[in-house]
Amino acid sequence: MAQHTLSGLPDIPIILRRSARAKRISLRVSGLDGRVTLTLPLGLADQDGLDFAAQKRDWLRHQIGKKIDIQPVKAGASVPIEGRLRQVQPAAGRRVVLTDDQIQLPGSVDQLGIKMRGYLRALARDRLAAASDGYAARLGRGYNRLTLRDTRSRWGSCSSQGALMYSWRLIMAPPDVLQYVAAHEVAHLSEMNHAPAFWALVGDLYGDYAPARSWLKENGAGLHNFRFGD
Fold first, then answer.
1. Domain 78-227's class?
2. How far is CA 97 from CA 69, 75, 92, 137, 214, in A?
3. Is the CB of residue 141 less than 8 Å from the CB of residue 192?
4. For 3-27, how does the pLDDT look when each residue is reduced to its tens digit (9 = 90+)?
5. Cβ atoms within 10 A of the Cβ of 74, count?
6. Closest by CA position to 172, among listed 133, 113, 110, 117
7. For a FRET experiment, which of 2, 40, 157, 175 has its CA 20 to 30 Å from that of 81?
8. Which part of the chain is CATH 3.30.2010.10?
9. What's this model's pTM, rounded to 2 decimal places?
10. By C-alpha distance, which of 122, 218, 121, 139 is closest to 183?
């Protein structure tokens, strides 16, 4: 990756990266911190990409200027878990209790966010492992390992060595969205691309993925607005 600056009032810092999978220039503005990433195909000159970004200067400033709705996770806050809003409540005892409309967390009130993050990561691992195992069995291919991260740019990935990675924040999305992402990444065990054959395989594994994919595009960024004490 390389750092560049698009001059103006104010200047816009740009991170330039290259991708073997990229077929065209793309610009992305992080909903978390306004960071701008310019992705280029391998054979394209840096200046061509920067010229493209310069043409999008007004759009970039508009996107960067949007207010990010940060939502601290604390007592009384409402947080989506498996697509359903639950109110965060402190509780006695030692066990996390999840009901239809609440999540009750033991421990000190100022540590509720951290406690909840740990719970959500564990729940995400359980759901994603089960989904990945099921799809991999149907595909007839195994994967090497499954890891969770708090990624900003992608919801999942599959390496050429068969390692699956997911964002643990998928546990906040509706269950069918989590299932779709698992099917998408497991399909890469057989098709390491996004060619028509890949999407046909995702459809075979999951079914009609268009609604889940659209949900992520429209609502996924909002899942990153929740802050768990980090």
1. alpha beta
2. 27, 14, 10, 32, 31
3. no
4. 888 877 677 889 999 998 888 999 9
5. 17
6. 117
7. 157
8. 78-227
9. 0.74
10. 139
